[in-house]
Amino acid sequence: MGHLQRMRSVLKCVLFVPITLCAIYLIPPSVKLLTGFMPMEKCHLESAKMLNLDSSVDASLNLQSRPDVLTCTYWKAAIIWEGMFDPRLYDEMHKMKGSSVALTVFAVGRYLDAYLHTFLNSSEQHFMVGLPVTYYVFTDMPEKVPNIKLSPLRSMKVIKVEKNSRWQDVSMMRMKSISDVIESDIRHHCTHVFCFDVDQVFTGRFGSEALGDSVALLHAHYYRLPKYLYTYDRNPNSKAYMETGDFYYHAAIFGGSWKNVKALTEACYQGIMEDKQNNVEALWHDESHLNKYMLLHKPSKVLSPEYCWDTSIGFRTDIQVTRLLWAPKYYDTLRTP
C-alpha cells in the first residue's frame, strides 16, 4: 500500500507540473495583463509599530500608503514597496550602525561573458550606495573577471570554483560555496549578505531599506496568483516537499544577516545532498529548497517584485518602480556543455 501511495504522489506531481508551468509561462500577454487585476490581500496591521521590527527605522514604514498591494505578512513582517519608506531615514540609520554588505554572485562558464560586466557596473550605480560593499565573485575563470572601477568603500574578491557539467548543479552547489565563504571571510568583515543571480541588471535604488535579519523576494510571476498555481516541489520523496506555503519566493535574490544566510545555505545544501543520496532532484533545485526553508523559518522582511522584475509580464500598475530587471535569457547557448 505504501508503494502504491508513493506512485500516486509521483504521478500527481508529474501531471501537475507541466500544466502549472504552461499556465504561468505560456499564457498570452493579454492574459498576463489581466492577472495584474487579481486582488491581493491587505495588511491587517494599523501601524508599522505593530510589526516584528527588524530595526527601529522599520517603525517609520507607512503600511497604508499602498492600498493596492499587501504590505505585511500574517507573521508581522514588512513587505517593501515603493512609497512605503523614506530612503534617507534608512541610509542614515545603517550608516550610524556601521552596516556593511557582502554581495555574492556566480558567473560560471558562458554566464561570465554574457552578464557579469553589466551586472557589476549597474550594481555600482544602484546597490547599497553609500554603504561599504564587498563583491564576492565566484567563477571558474578568475582571469576573465572584468576590471570594474569601484566607488570608495567598495571592494571585490574573486573566488575560484569548479565548473559543473550540469547548470542545475551549479545552481544547487552555490549554497555550499556561499556558506563556506561566510565562515572563512564574510563574517569577519560584513554585517549583511545578499546573494544574486548574475543574469540581472540594476535599474533603480536597491538600498538599505532591503536590509534585514532574513530577507526573501516575492517571485514576479507568482505574487498575484492563487497558491494552487505555485510550483512548490510536491514530490514527497524530496526534502523540499511542500503541500502549500505562504508565498512563492524567488531564489534569484535572498539575504539577511551573515548568521541567517549561513543557516539558510547550510540547510538548503543539506537538503540537496540528502536528495542526491536518494536519487531525487527538487523541481526547481535550490529555489525549491529555499522555499521550504522560508516556510519553516519565516523571513523577517519580504521584498516586493520591484526588486526583481521581468518586463515580459507587461505593464502592472502596482510596479511603480523597477529596481532590478531580469536580463535576456539565452538558455539554449549558455546552458549547453
TrEMBL record:
Membrane topology: Single-pass type II membrane protein
Cofactor(s) required for function per UniProt: Mn(2+)
Residues given in the record as an alpha-L-fucosyl-(1->2)-beta-D-galactosyl derivative binding sites: 219, 231, 287, 310
Binding, Mn(2+): 197, 199
Binding site for UDP-N-acetyl-alpha-D-galactosamine: 106-108, 111, 197-199
CDD domains with a match to the protein in the record: Glyco_transf_6
Domain of life: Eukaryota
InterPro entries xrefs: Glyco_trans_6, Nucleotide-diphossugar_trans
Transmembrane segments: none
The keyword Cell division is annotated on this UniProt entry: no
Similarity remark: Belongs to the glycosyltransferase 6 family.
Molecular function per GO: glycosyltransferase activity
Keyword annotations: Glycosyltransferase, Manganese, Membrane, Metal-binding, Signal-anchor, Transferase, Transmembrane, Transmembrane helix
Cofactor binding: number and manner: Binds 1 Mn(2+) ion per subunit.
Major location category of this protein: membrane
Active site, UniProt feature: 287 (nucleophile)
Keyword flag Calcium: no
GO cellular component: membrane
Protein name: N-acetyllactosaminide alpha-1,3-galactosyltransferase-like
Localization annotation: Membrane
